[in-house]
Amino acid sequence: MNDSSPGEGHVRVVGTAHVSADSVREVEETVREERPDVVAVELDEGRYRQLKGGTPDDIEARDLLRGNTVFQFIAYWMLSYVQSRMGDKFDVKPGADMLAAVETAEEEGLDVALVDRDIQVTIQRFWRRMGTLEKMRMAGDLLFGVADARGIGAVFGIAVGVVLGPLVGLFGGAVGVTDLLLTRTATAAVLGGAAAYLLYTIASFSLDGDDAVLAGLGGGAAIGIVAGFGLGLGTGLVSGVLGSLGVAIVGSLVIGVLAGVVVGVTVGAVLNAFGLFAPVEGDADYEEFDMAELTDGDVVSAMMEEFRRFSPGGAEALIDERDAYIAHQLVALRQSGRHVVAVVGAGHREGIERYLEHPETLPPMESLVGVAEKDGFPWGKLLGFGVTAVFVAFFVLLAMAGVGNERLLTIFGAWFLINGVFAAALAKVAGARWTSAAVGGLVAWMTSINPLLAPGWFTGYVELRHTPVNVGDIGKLNELLSDEETPIVELVGQMLDVPLFKLIMVVAMTNIGSIIASFLFVTYVIPVIASDLGGVAGVTNLMLEGARNSADLIWRSLT
């Protein structure tokens, strides 16, 4: 292609399939035949170094405190894993086309230009532009292997269930949730969990790993439901160990999560029946393509459009913005009078060529870089600041109602303790160092009421001071996931040995612990420590009294 003005250079765009051997040959032949001044490749500095065998960049500890680093790496991992699977299917290393372009240019003594946007910027913008439903859909696909509405329903159900559980414990009596039901449910959960572990251990001697896991889970669920819930066996022991508060917490959480998942999956199935959130095309569709077809730009573009249907916002950051960014680089090279061969993915070719023909339509470069702003009203930030305001108002209003400092310190101490214990405990379960878990636990009380912070960031910060993590870990994770014969329990253990996955789990589990603790504090702890104040109802009345006293004080000050 040569759409240039007199005195300018020209650009030929070569569209490739990143996992196609035919694309490698086409790139090598084109570069040698054209002998351009510059070979431009769809790479940034970091990916270029990795293709050349260099060491990937470490994640800096300070970067973890920028907000969504861990989530961005999950998105990067997901995209890398999909491409890796396609490369394995067609026996070609992903990125071989770009590496061929670079090596051929070097052999011919030609300049190489890296014209793609930095991968970290792309992934950050990709994550920010994905909608909540799209993220839930992705999580459903990764967790349950279901990318349609059933997966969304399952993920949504679990999230709702964690919130619903404490509400069941607080207001369950009004809808028929008795102490006996909570006790039987908690007993079923504890008994079923213990039985599942024992049965898995026994089954692992004679069954393959995944079959042993299924046998353990199935047998444990059956024993828990029949013996624990149906017959009430072990209720005395469980009640004695957990206590009344523990039974209420476990029982209501189990009821809430189960109800949320059942409702979520049911709604998902109904949406599927009406054709909403249709499944994303899976591996079976790739079987239809032979090697020759895969190199065709129309087929690759069709695959890109399938991704656009899955995530319109993500596709904007991953495809459209990069088309414009690369086109900006190529226009600049053309205006400098250079003859350029640009090697890009086939899905980008049409968009880039359109911009090369009409460069006046290019969006400003500053709109394609930096942190992407989310569209729509910032409900998340509003909720976060609302939590902070409610927490501060809670103590202020109680103080204005005449509650003594000793009682306020007791309530605050309980808040500090339950947040710290849950955050630190779950961080340790994920494999955090004692120092890391302790730091997360110590700041959990503060971060749980601050929408701009999370305890997991601090836990991860300390972890990174001892264990280097870099994007090269994603390749290790892809290798592990590609082995379909490894039992799932063993696979999880191997993944936890990879620093990046361990970091993700440590950060996530610390945050989850703090979130759970916050709900438990409101729904279970306050009624216990404020029982002489009338429980939740009494505390609410005191807060109303504090509000009236505050209003009177303000009015007297003004008048």
From TrEMBL:
Protein keywords: Membrane, Transmembrane, Transmembrane helix
Record's signal peptide: none
Transmembrane segments: 152-175, 181-200, 212-233, 245-271, 382-402, 408-427, 439-458, 503-526
Keyword RNA-binding set for record: no
Keyword Zinc recorded: no
PANTHER family: PHEROMONE SHUTDOWN PROTEIN (PTHR21530), TRAB DOMAIN-CONTAINING PROTEIN (PTHR21530:SF7)
Name of protein: TraB family protein
Organism: Haloferax denitrificans ATCC 35960
Lineage, uppermost ranks: Archaea, Methanobacteriati, Methanobacteriota, Stenosarchaea group, Halobacteria
